[in-house]
Please model this.
Amino acid sequence: MSWKTAFRSFYYETAEEPDDIELVPAETALLVIDIQNTYVAPKDDPAEQARWAPFFERMDKVVIPNTSALQDWARGNGVEVIHARIACQKEDGRDRSLSQKKPGFNYLLLPKDREDSQIVKAVGPEGDEIVVTKTTDSVLTGTNLRLILHNMGIRNVIVAGIFTDQCISSSVRSLADESFNVVVVEDCCAAATDDLHRHELEIINMIYCHVVSSAEVRGFLTDAAGRAAAAHTGMPAPRRTVSRRRPGRAAARRDIPAIGPAPRPRAERRGPAAAVKHEGRSTPGLALEIGADRLRPHFITYR
Model:
């Protein structure tokens, strides 16, 4: 089944198929969320180990290898790879959000330097890849990631990680609310059970994101290097030049970069008329050059 028809909730059962997805590499990031040592460590209680066995198997055989391969694909195609993990700054966890202090599964005490809070090595950062640390479910709520994405010109975010029904869902909703285009890679995510995983994907699909496979997302990159570069760096500002003409001498022209609009003449500096030329029109104005012995009028022209 294609991503265009899969994971449909009641709200979107009869909706038209979405348009093709096109991702410009320079405007796209792969965000991997919370694949950390603590979540793949065996349980102390044999009964709990058996209960979580399907999750461990999916992580070991599907999510981690697929995510690692997707990271390699992203790095090889100019897509920024970003990592997020849960970790607190204080050893006693005083800086955690309330949701991580409540008793139960979501009680998380993961000091930032402890081994269980580290990212699983197979999907860890390389080089100068950005790692953001949070004590919230949403990556945007608990970090400066929104500002980072904005500063880097990122408009599209490919999401992978765990847990689908918790930090993935919360982050996806926040990203969508901030007007990012979001793609969730189904076979790079997991929840505690497959039912929870699939149910949450149906809830968020088509409204907060598009749910796709790791094979499908590889076909979304578009060859728009020139457009991407322009959008990423911005168009160069027009260059203003100053042409100086001195009485009794041949006009000498030289280009002088300037910042901001040309200064308006001050009322107390009235003198010989000059012309300020702009887009082919001349309007009265005065620009003065301070010489060694007097004030000399000159012309300002705009290219």
